[in-house]
Amino acid sequence: MSSSRLLDTKGGAGGIAPEFLVSPDMLDAVSPSGDRGGMVLGSGLQGEPLTISALRPAPTRIVLVGGLYLARQVALRAMAVGAWVVVATGRPAAWQVLQKAAGTGPDGRPAPLVQIRRLSPVELPRPSEDGPLLVVHDGGPTPQELFPPRSPWQTTVYVLPYMHPQAGATANAADLVLLQRLPVGQAQLAARVWRLPPPMVQQLTTLADDQVVALGKNLWRPLRLVTTQKEQQILGPVRRGD
């Protein structure tokens, strides 16, 4: 594989992005994009902004292993770039902040940009380049494929509160994995799922509350979450837990 630009570092020295050995598919999954799907995920260790193309012209799966804070922040940033957001969850009250952030329509009802659903199949909005769709599946550590991404501009985010032995299939099917700090036992399980060497396993157990590792094929990128003032008003301070 050839060395390719992977994560944008807008505002970095000379505007030069770091180089990684990546496959073309993974480059498309997480590289910066000129389209509306490009979202700032956090910052590098030198403070440079890092962007992912979470909404793209291909069906996309993202697995998030960690707390509710990160999942809601990803959803908020998808809304900010014009995406429809559908949340399927067993804890709807925890996601009401998204509807509050979306505001209300002319009739005074919650804006249709955000829909909070039960964990059962429903008809989804039809995604397009002008209206990409982010489906958040918040169904515990062993999610069912209720809303698999089947069309361009649809991204499904699977929120796993912790690593579970039966989540291997979901984890391995992901185009991108975002990992927050894991206890030793769960980090060892992650090592078996993704064949991680001991130094990476150790790093997963020592991440700070505001740190995340972006994981993919030939990708291991630690980054730091950054919360805007408006996001802080909605979500509170950056944290590892819910």
Number of strands: 12
Relative strand content: 25-35%
Structural class: alpha/beta
Rounded average pLDDT = 81
Major sheet summary line:
8 strands, mixed
How many helices? The count is: 7
User: Roughly what percent helix?
Assistant: 10-25%
Secondary-structure element pattern, one letter each: EEHEEEHEHEEEHEHHEEH
Low-confidence stretches: 1-36
Order of strands across the main sheet = 7-6-8-9-5-10-11-12
Shape: globular
Give the tags:
alpha/beta; globular; 7 helices; 12 strands; two-stranded antiparallel ribbon; 242 residues; disordered N terminus
Can you offer a commentary on this structure?
There is one protein chain. The chain has helices spanning 24-30, 68-80, 96-102, 168-172, 184-194, 198-205, 229-235, and strands at 3-5, 19-21, 38-43, 49-53, 60-65, 84-89, 114-117, 133-138, 154-160, 176-179, 211-216, 219-224. The protein is built from seven helices and twelve strands. The strands form three sheets. Strands 7-6-8-9-5-10-11-12 form an eight-stranded mixed sheet. It has a two-stranded antiparallel ribbon with strand order 1-2. It has a two-stranded antiparallel ribbon with strand order 3-4. The radius of gyration is 17 Å and the shape is globular. With 242 residues, it is of the alpha/beta class. The longest helix is centred in the first third of the chain and has 13 residues, at 68-80. Helix 5 packs antiparallel against helix 6. The chain starts with a strand and ends in a 7-residue tail after the last helix. Residues 1-36 have low confidence and may be disordered. Helix content is 24%, strand content 26%.
